[in-house]
Amino acid sequence: MKKINFCAWLIFIGLSLTAQEYGDFTDARDGRVYKTIQIGSQVWMAENLNFTAEGDGVIYPNNPSLAEAYGRIYCWEVALEVCPDGWHLPSDSEWTALTETLGGIDIAGDKMKLPGKLWLTLNEGANNESGFSAVPGGYQKYPDLSNYHFMGYLAHFWSSTEKTASSAIGRGLDFGGSDLSIGHFYKNWGMSVRCVKDE
């Protein structure tokens, strides 16, 4: 009987450690409500930003329902300013902290991807254990801003960290991989934005 109770206790503790407890945040600018999630010491929006920025904040062409599903995508200069008060575009070091909390670059991606039909195909290990709930919004390449590359297959996110005069660092999730990749992208490309709460 004691062995059974001990096993039940271990199962309970395991479930408690992996349980996702979402909060929410209302953007006062447009009234949109976002799910939030604490991962380690950080609080992240658990959805891609979907705010119509002044003069930018690109929406998927002729299909607003895609913006509802994937959020909007922004060039880097707009991404720097588009998070609401109390939130900001994460730096490269903040992305790195998230990666380390999730066990390292090689496995963090599986713990961040939201399984489901928005990913047109997805590796079996993807489980959204972190609650980050990444969806594959793809990206835009300048000057062809009418074409959304790899929507349904890739999720690319900006950081606030500049790499060169024309590029900035970002993070990426691939439909077939378990990692959270790091790269640098032209600032005039359009990519997704996740905001992290100010400390």
Topology:
Blueprint: H1 2-18, E1 23-26, E2 33-39, E3 42-45, H2 64-70, E4 73-74, H3 76-82, E5 87-88, H4 92-101, E6 139-141, E7 144-149, E8 154-162, E9 167-174, E10 181-186, E11 191-192, E12 196-197
Please describe the structure with a list of short key phrases separated by commas or semicolons.
4 helices; disordered N terminus; 3-stranded antiparallel beta sheet; single chain; 199 residues
What do you see in this structure?
The model is unreliable at 1-18 (pLDDT under 50). The protein has helices spanning 2-18, 64-70, 76-82, 92-101, and strands at residues 23-26, 33-39, 42-45, 73-74, 87-88, 139-141, 144-149, 154-162, 167-174, 181-186, 191-192, 196-197. It contains 4 helices and 12 strands. Strands 1-2-3 form a 3-stranded antiparallel beta sheet, with no helix packed on it. It has a 3-stranded antiparallel beta sheet with strand order 8-9-10, with helices on one face. A two-stranded antiparallel ribbon has the order 4-11. It starts with a helix and ends with a strand. The protein is α+β, with helices and mostly antiparallel strands and 199 residues long.
